[in-house]
């Protein structure tokens, strides 16, 4: 157990160290720019720093929201209440999960710890998958941002919302079929380390009497802080790699094939994955591509990115088994592409 704790502490310190370095470059850019050091740094790497910080600073508020919701679920949502809320029939449970995603404003950064916690509390794996892919798109905040970004082309707005709802249920059904005989797909090593990390006396205090409000707040903060530092490592790694792709990817080559229906859809799905934009803001970025890319590919960008991007891929691999994550990524990619192609001549 001491080796596990040392490993966790080492990873936390490394992640925080990287973040502090980039924050220092951001906060003291004026002073650094006056030194000779900055002249030796290529402009491309300065751009990497800027993009990295924009992704991290954009995502952190939603990560905080997600980990606090996760902490509340851990402390106040019982397995019995989850079982009462969901229909006993596995297929019938898919629709309520999609509806739940439509009312809770969580982006793809915040949703991962929430879904992991719900599955640990007893939510079926396939229902968690529906919630995982539906909530970052269907929530009211994303609806509003997409409306303002595409108010002159509401077909994109309704295509995004309608397609996301249907495809979320379909993705959940496919993964239920694949894993119904082996639904336990959370990584055991993560569960073990978290259990030891939360154990008394290192973690949350065990109360023999009914906890008071200060004790409850203390427990929430303990859980939320543990989740935040654990998620933060993967956010930083994913954001850094996404910033690298944004800086060094040859966009001119990709834009040259933007007029082809199939090629442009693949390209925009690739953009959505690599750019790792927060779902609350991605519509405004997508609207900037409207002149070069087809409406079909824009919808693919808006549906695929919140379901699967580079930074949440690292989080998924951290908390779920590799076989499940690979199946999830393949299913989401194929289903989104097929769904967008299906509606391309009908609505768009």
Automatic annotation (TrEMBL):
<dbReference type="Pfam" id="PF03773">
    <property type="entry name" value="ArsP_1"/>
</dbReference>
<keyword id="KW-1003">Cell membrane</keyword>
<protein>
    <submittedName>
        <fullName>Putative permease</fullName>
    </submittedName>
</protein>
<feature type="transmembrane region" description="Helical">
    <location>
        <begin position="127"/>
        <end position="150"/>
    </location>
</feature>
<keyword id="KW-1133">Transmembrane helix</keyword>
<feature type="transmembrane region" description="Helical">
    <location>
        <begin position="261"/>
        <end position="277"/>
    </location>
</feature>
<keyword id="KW-0472">Membrane</keyword>
<dbReference type="InterPro" id="IPR005524">
    <property type="entry name" value="DUF318"/>
</dbReference>
<comment type="similarity">
    <text>Belongs to the UPF0718 family.</text>
</comment>
<feature type="transmembrane region" description="Helical">
    <location>
        <begin position="162"/>
        <end position="179"/>
    </location>
</feature>
<feature type="transmembrane region" description="Helical">
    <location>
        <begin position="228"/>
        <end position="249"/>
    </location>
</feature>
<feature type="transmembrane region" description="Helical">
    <location>
        <begin position="324"/>
        <end position="347"/>
    </location>
</feature>
<keyword id="KW-0812">Transmembrane</keyword>
<feature type="transmembrane region" description="Helical">
    <location>
        <begin position="89"/>
        <end position="115"/>
    </location>
</feature>
<feature type="transmembrane region" description="Helical">
    <location>
        <begin position="51"/>
        <end position="77"/>
    </location>
</feature>
<dbReference type="InterPro" id="IPR052923">
    <property type="entry name" value="UPF0718"/>
</dbReference>
<dbReference type="GO" id="GO:0005886">
    <property type="term" value="C:plasma membrane"/>
</dbReference>
